[in-house]
């Protein structure tokens, strides 16, 4: 092999190594993405086994979506997400703080870390099936409540708006709080122990330490948790879909945006589904922008660090 | 240089072997028949009665015939419309597919048979083109099964071995306690029409029993006797039949009167299954032959002989699988042979009735079975259900079908389920149905309700 330069340039290998990712991203994500946007301007669906379209219809899909119940479903999604997310982030913060605090000397933290993460490993649909059976009118939960005499008649959990919504929220909470806990623990452990020591010497109590040191220090990771949770929340699908048999019952009050999208795909309505996806894309973009600005505005170099840490932690996109 | 040559060689070898792996090896060179279905029901019946069958591979995917022809079974589950999706994909590619990849036979259910027998879609071949004359060869089949499998011009495009007249299945122990008798004839008198059964329901309620488990149980009786199809041929307007609204009104009245169990919401769920157990207070279910064998007997936890059958308040049909020859098949002769063997031959059909308890599609055969004591059922305590099935089957008038039936039937029940449970008012339930149906079928332009 002839040597042209004395210095060997290794940088090209870096590009070679990341090439497979970009190729697969291009084929499996980018092209479908562009296609989705393109089809959103077309009338394109199947009636029986006859294909209709694609006919160019301009913004008609977007307009008719605005006229539909889309905003109602967006509100449903938001409510379902908040019911799950508030307990999720609160519990995760508390647990993370406890697990990391050396002075509490909790035994078996490793064990608990595994246990709280376990619900996340169950398939969401299986989890929803389980809850569907447990909370059915003749199910075990009603059976237990009745046999200990708390209620005299079975409660129709899945027949009431509040029952269904709380169950969905509760399941999302159970599935994702372990994930958040582990993420926040990593963040808290990243804080320099010097700061905690100094605060102890100054006579800080644990509340003050939590609110004035821990919280501000982990803000970048909190922002990351919030963003992924919002995106995950917007995509909420499997749990309510299985729990309500795809109907969003009762009276479509637990119908989420993606369930709405899915019901368009039953007729292979690529045009309408594409338009809905574009709306979702724009909304998640805006939400991310706001949250990011909100949590990072007075911490100019925090954002970069956050992005780095986040990347390291985010093996997969979670719901926070 | 040498190294490079070796590596190129290796890469070439790898690519070639990969490419070879992709190509389908079509076996011993015999013909291939591809059959699309959603379960093994049809395969089992072909194996049982088609004389040319030699053997089936252990995994059940390939059946070899005596002349070396291979039947490839392509099974996709019915749940969530997976079967139809896969079948639709295959049908779209049918024209360009290689001979051995073409769909030869596919099955459909009553709920969506119309989608495939549609004249314009032309997915299912007219039986005439296959060399089967429906008027002559299928004269012993029940008329309504022939109507169901025909397109709007009356050209029959499918045939079935199975016919699904429904009966009323009741608990003998409850009947004895409430009416003092469990005789099918006398119980039959008490449930002979809707007015009579409503009075009977009152008697049952006084003793603390429900007549049926849920409002969904009676839907088929109303929904399958509508006068006009949901969507008229060539139109995009859904006309909701008065019978459907009658179902809503009657169900509401029954539910309020306490004749139905409020806790059972629809079918195919845990509560419904439990309603068939021995601890349940439900007197009767409405089931065709398959429902008694596959659903009721599976959920029953008591002894045999507690359930009995009698006539339903109204003749109805529930379910049924149709066999179609696929347009573009390259094995028309064999396809014809299989269809004739499994859905027409009387001896074969009687064998299926005996082995699988199907109510089969032969008028004369079923009349014989009704007289024959060897067709009695152990689960029904030695009662011969065919005695009751046969007259129901002869009186069924099947509702005119449309390609939109599956969605309409499913969504109208869902929407009004909320109303019946008191979650929404009547008008809201109507709007919810309109929203849902347009989501499912984007080409629907209008929904008309009866006055």
Brief characterization of the structure:
Chain A has 14 helices and two strands; from the N terminus they run αββααααααααααααα. Chain A is mostly helical. Chain A has a two-stranded antiparallel sheet with strand order 1-2.
What's the helix and strand layout?
The complex is a heterodimer of chains A (about 325) and B (about 450).
Chain A: H1 11-39, E1 42-47, E2 50-56, H2 60-67, H3 70-100, H4 109-121, H5 124-134, H6 140-147, H7 161-189, H8 193-201, H9 206-217, H10 219-234, H11 238-243, H12 257-265, H13 270-296, H14 302-313
Antiparallel strand pairs in A: 1-2
Chain B: H1 2-22, E1 32-37, H2 41-49, E2 53-56, E3 62-65, E4 70-75, H3 82-93, E5 103-109, H4 113-117, H5 127-130, H6 134-137, H7 143-148, E6 166-171, H8 172-179, H9 184-190, H10 194-206, H11 216-223, E7 237-239, H12 242-257, H13 270-274, E8 284-288, H14 289-299, E9 307-310, E10 321-325, H15 332-343, H16 346-356, H17 363-371, H18 386-395, H19 405-420, H20 426-440, E11 446-448
Parallel strand pairs in B: 1-4, 1-5, 7-11
Antiparallel strand pairs in B: 2-3, 3-4, 5-10, 6-8, 6-9
Helix pairs in contact in B: 11-12, 16-17, 17-18, 19-20
């Amino acid at each position: 092999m002839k040597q042209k330069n004395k210095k060997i340039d290794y940088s090209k290998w870096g590009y070679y190594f990341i090439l497979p990712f970009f190729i697969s991203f291009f084929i499996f994500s980018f092209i479908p993405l562009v296609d989705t946007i393109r089809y959103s301007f077309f009338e394109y669906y199947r009636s029986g086994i006859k294909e209709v379209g694609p006919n160019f219809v301009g913004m008609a899909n977007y307009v008719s979506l605005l006229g539909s119940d889309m905003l109602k479903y967006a509100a449903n999604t938001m409510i379902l997400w908040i019911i799950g997310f508030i307990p999720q982030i609160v519990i995760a913060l508390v647990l993370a703080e406890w697990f990391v605090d050396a002075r509490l000397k909790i035994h078996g933290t490793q064990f608990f870390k595994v246990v709280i993460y376990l619900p996340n490993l169950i398939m969401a649909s299986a989890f929803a099936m389980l809850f569907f059976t447990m909370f059915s009118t003749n199910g075990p939960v009603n059976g237990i409540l009745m046999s200990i005499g708390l209620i005299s008649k079975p409660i129709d959990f899945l027949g009431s708006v509040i029952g269904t919504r709380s169950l969905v929220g509760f399941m999302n909470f159970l599935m994702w709080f372990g994930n958040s806990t582990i993420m926040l623990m990593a963040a808290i452990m990243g804080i320099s122990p010097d700061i905690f020591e100094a605060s102890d010497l100054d006579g800080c109590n644990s509340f003050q330490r939590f609110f004035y040191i821990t919280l501000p220090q982990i803000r970048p990771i909190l922002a990351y948790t919030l963003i992924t949770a919002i995106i995950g929340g917007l995509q909420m699908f499997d749990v309510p879909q299985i729990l309500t048999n795809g109907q969003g019952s009762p009276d479509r009050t637990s119908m989420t945006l993606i369930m709405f999208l899915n019901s368009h795909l039953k007729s292979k309505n690529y045009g309408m589904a594409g338009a809905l996806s574009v709306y979702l894309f724009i909304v998640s973009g805006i939400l991310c922008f706001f949250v990011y600005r909100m949590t990072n505005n007075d911490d100019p170099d925090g954002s970069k660090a956050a992005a780095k840490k986040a990347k390291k932690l985010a093996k997969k996109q979670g719901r926070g | 240089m040498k190294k490079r040559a070796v590596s190129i060689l290796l890469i070439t070898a790898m690519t070639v072997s990969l490419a070879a792996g992709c190509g389908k090896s079509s076996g011993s060179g015999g013909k291939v028949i591809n059959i699309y279905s959603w379960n093994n029901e049809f395969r089992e019946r072909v194996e049982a009665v088609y004389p040319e069958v030699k053997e089936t591979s252990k995994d059940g995917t390939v059946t070899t015939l005596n002349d070396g022809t291979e039947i490839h079974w392509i099974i996709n589950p019915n749940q969530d419309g997976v079967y139809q999706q896969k079948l639709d994909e295959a049908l779209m590619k049918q024209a360009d597919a290689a001979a051995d990849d073409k769909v030869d036979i596919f099955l459909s259910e009553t709920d969506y048979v119309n989608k495939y027998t549609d004249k314009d879609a032309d997915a299912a071949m007219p039986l005439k083109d296959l060399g089967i004359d429906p008027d002559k060869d299928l004269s012993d089949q029940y008329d309504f099964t022939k109507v169901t499998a025909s397109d709007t011009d009356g050209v029959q495009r499918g045939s079935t071995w199975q016919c699904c007249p429904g009966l009323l299945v009741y608990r003998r122990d409850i009947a004895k306690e409430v009416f003092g008798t469990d005789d099918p004839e006398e119980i039959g008198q008490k449930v002979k029409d809707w007015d009579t059964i409503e009075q009977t329901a009152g008697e049952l309620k006084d003793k603390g029993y429900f007549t049926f488990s849920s409002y969904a149980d009676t839907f088929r009786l109303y929904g399958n006797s509508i006068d006009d199809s949901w969507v008229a041929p060539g139109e995009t307007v859904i006309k909701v039949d008065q019978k459907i609204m009658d179902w809503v009104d009657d169900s509401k009245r029954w539910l309020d009167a306490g004749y139905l169990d409020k806790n059972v919401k629809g079918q195919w769920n845990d509560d419904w299954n439990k309603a068939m157990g021995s601890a349940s207070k439900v007197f009767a279910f409405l089931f065709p032959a398959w429902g008694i064998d596959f659903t009721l007997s599976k959920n029953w936890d008591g002894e045999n002989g507690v359930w009995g059958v009698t006539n339903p308040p109204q003749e109805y049909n529930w379910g049924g699988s149709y066999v179609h020859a696929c347009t573009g098949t390259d094995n028309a002769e064999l396809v014809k042979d299989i269809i004739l063997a499994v859905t027409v031959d009387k001896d074969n059909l009687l064998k299926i009735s005996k082995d699988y308890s199907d109510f089969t599609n032969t008028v004369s055969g079923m009349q014989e079975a009704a007289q024959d004591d060897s067709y009695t059922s152990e689960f029904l305590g030695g009662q011969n259900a065919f005695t009751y099935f046969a007259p129901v089957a002869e009186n069924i008038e099947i509702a005119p079908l449309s390609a939109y039936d599956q969605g309409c039937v499913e969504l109208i029940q869902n929407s009004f389920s909320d109303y019946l449970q008191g979650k929404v008012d009547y008008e809201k339930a109507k709007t919810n149905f309109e929203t849902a149906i347009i989501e499912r079928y984007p080409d629907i332009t209008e929904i008309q309700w009866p006055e």
